[in-house]
Design goal:
- With about 900 residues, the protein is an alpha/beta fold.
- About 55% of the residues lie in helices and about 15% in strands.
- It has 29 helices and 24 strands.
- The strands form five sheets. It has a six-stranded parallel beta sheet with strand order 2-1-3-4-5-11, with helices on both faces.
- Strand 3, helix 4 and strand 4 form a beta-alpha-beta unit.
- The chain is extended, with a radius of gyration of 41 Å.
- InterPro entries: CheY-like_superfamily, HATPase_C_sf, HATPase_dom, His_kinase_dom, HisK_dim/P_dom, HisK_dim/P_sf, Homeodomain-like_sf, HTH_AraC.
- Its EC number is 2.7.13.3.
- Keywords: DNA-binding, Membrane, Phosphoprotein, Transcription, Transcription regulation, Transmembrane, Transmembrane helix.
- Pfam families: HATPase_c, HisKA, HTH_18, Peripla_BP_4, Response_reg.
Amino acid sequence: MYQTVKYILLLFIASLTLISCKQKLSNKIKVGFSQAMTTDDWRKQMNSSMKIEASLRSGVDLTIKDANNNIEKQIEDIEGFISNKVDVIIVSPIQSKPLTAVVEKSIKAGIPVLVVDRKIEGESYTAYLGADNIEIGRIAARYIISHSKGSGKIIEITGANGSSPAYERSLGFEQIINENKRFRVNNIIHGNWEGESVKESLKTILLQNPDIEYIFAHNDRMALSAWETAKTVGLEKKIKFIGVDGLNTVNGGIELVKSGVLDGTILYPTGGNEALKLALKMYNKEAIAKNNILNTIVIDKNNAEIIENQMDKVDQQQTVIESQQGAIKVQEREYASQNNLVRLLSFFLVIILSLTIYSIYSTISISRKKKQLERINQTVIDQNNEIQEMAKIAERSNEVKLNFFTGLSHEFKTPITLIMSYVESLIENEKIKGTALIDEVKLIHKNSNRLLRLINQLLDFRKIEEQKFTLRASSTKIYDFTNEVMINFKGEAARRNIDFQLICKNKNLELFIDRELIDKVYFNLLSNAFKFTPDNGKINISIIENQDNTVKIHFKDSGIGIPDDELSNVFNPFFRASNNNKNSSGIGLHLSKEFVLLHQGTIELKSKQGSEFVITLLKGVSHLQPSEIINKAEKLTITTNLITDNLDIESELNETNVISESEKHTLLVLEDNIDLVAFLKAKLSNEYVIYTSDGSDAIEKAIEIIPDIIICDINLVDKDGYEISKELKKDLRSSHIPIIILTAQSNKESVLKGLQSGVDQYLTKPFSLSILKQSISSLLFNREKLRYYYTNNIYRVEPESKFGNQEQSFITKMNDIIKKNVENPKFSVEDLADKLGVSRVQLYRKVKAIIGINISDHINNVKLEKAAELLKLNNMNISEIAYSLGFSSPNYFSTAFKNKFGISPKEYKSSN
């Protein structure tokens, strides 16, 4: 009863709150703002001024959506505003043309649209607000003309193609420059508003044209990047830089002007508060201009500090306003809370009165029914316990079956599901016999057999469950039968050097058996024996005739065995031992036991130094029904035609070298399925040097070889692919090696776990060979790009926190150690390897893989960099510097120095 009262109170509070919120929201003007991706500082300033303006107007509900420079996302955001029927839409377009249609849709829906900062194509919008980008271009040109004292050569760095500000700024700039014949734009670089987009092309231009006087960039970020590029070629003081934006932030235009990086910047106002004011006028249908232009000025060293102070004051005032608005909102919430509390208390008093009356009545009624309810409650508890127990049993059974079918579906991914009759006809085709193709067709045929056997096992399992099997026993010489089955496994035994023997004293011993069913029993037991027996092991079959009218058939192997606490479960359906990491459906042994029981026999397991299965069969026919006996044995269809259930059968595929060995990258394949390994070697060995491992020595082999790339399965011997990938990525010696996971596990959790282990690519079976090849090529190409970065920035590598990877940390740490010991003539490669905690060979391989040169040359380069610094200081002569850095003679030092810097130490010292 009291729980019911509590729920009533909660519903009442929620209703009051919902009604209050609806009343507030229903009277507000809904304004949607779709923001383009600009700089964080410009975007924050724009959004902040708009939010403050909205907070000053209690009737405005402002929603801001940031498209993050994704035009599809911006169109989706505007579509959302239209669907939600906002009153006004404000749009800052990423690109002009793609947004035209959705803006027209908004106008047709009766929602006015204010376009800010950048225009769209046509005039299908209500109004435009922004700076006059044509005038900004003109102002920049006039400033250059009025301040120029040099060559008059100019480089213009534009914004992204398709952006209206970039087009208009270029148009205005060109108009003024073309009016003055002394000035000309030597080069135009098309950037994308980001600094990195201009560096490479600008550096090439500056090296060819060192007499450039001005660089005009369409924003301050690209202007700063241009200055940094000019600095790398020593022209930062000769060239003057003009930018656009004039933000009052760290590395903003004003700070860059004050610090002398930029000669000037054109103020590009955000206009956030003006945009919201104009949007409200549009909503109220007041008369407004179609184009509303924000004022702009040039900021240079003469007025930068004044404008900075003014902007600081504006920021302070905005902070005060935000603080006051926050205080007002707190008071509004307190008022609303107190008002709701009064209503709640009134309602609560009514409830208390009602409860008092009801409690008196309930006390009398409860006392009468208490004993009756206790009896009913106990009955319900007992029944509930039984139901829960039954539910748990059903859940476990269902879970086991689901796991079985899931595992079986994974097994179906590896075999190639081709129609066997067509494959067999291909094998017999004279045109492909004796060619390399025949091996691949046989591989398809083998996997088709494997799939057929798996399906047959599933059908057998269903028959066993439904008790539909009828025994068809005939007199059989058990020695000949056993030997006939063993023939199919002898090739595997010979290839793996396994001692495979049959021991039988009475070769004429006859038993009544169903040859087809016992053949399946043999196959399952021998398949397991070959799966879990290592190379050079032993597998024996012993047939022993006993005095008690029984025959025992022993299958003994020297494999991994089965844990003692799991021996009683091995014949249960769907069971897999804890030490079994092979693909398995889990029904083979269960079927084997059922087939032996049909013969009124038994099967048992012993596990000591391997596994030993013992089948006990009765002699004679007295234990069989007449309907279970046939007079003549039918011809046996051997199910072990090809040993395909995860056994290691090699496929001899021809390999043709196309690329010379010295030019090939090395590839390590970690896979325990020999068929798949053979396939990968056949398809990839023309382009790569292939190494393989079944996973038992994966870490050791990777560290020994240091391959260029690794392909790894998940289910492997000893460790799974996730553990191997994680260890290799953590190890400094192998962290740079790209890893591709190639597995049948395609669920979301497996993919996520793989990526968390540090793998670079996750591919699932069945896979496309072309996609695998492209993935390998792409990863190697990315590794080459990283090597190019380290090679060209080897002495300016940022700390590891910049990128957060082990290569970054390794290079940084190595350079620090070399620099600390650069003046120590006894410092050697061995000393460096010792301080880094790796061997000399591993250090050589690691450095060669990352930067493409050997470690000795790298140390020598660092010494030469130090020598250049000492020459600039001019405190030591050339001989002193040479000997202090461990060079054998001044002449050798001079030769090495000239090879690196292009001039002799003497010339370098004089020039500095």
